[in-house]
Amino acid sequence: MLSPNTIGELLEERRQQVERDLAACQKKVEELRTQVEGSKAEDDLFFPLLTLQRSIALFQTDLSWIDATLAQFKQRQEQASAQKRRRKPSTSSAKGRARSA
Length: 101
What we know:
By secondary structure, this protein is mainly α. The chain has one domain. The protein is built from three helices and no strands. The protein is rod-shaped.
């Protein structure tokens, strides 16, 4: 029920949010890995790191899906525009047909 422009905007907004979330998770992983170096905190951080790695994998999957969806959406929009141009007679050819009738 949404306009094609709105759909495209929503997909782009979602992509930006996922990129921000991914970057935040990656930053947190680096912070935790820095804490682990040279300490006995590795056991305490093992499961948080696993959880962050899962989140990163999910965000990367989301980005792949959004990118593929945006590409298909844009291709569909271009095809629809091309079909409209082919169906719509130009005003000069329509006038020419009207004169010859």
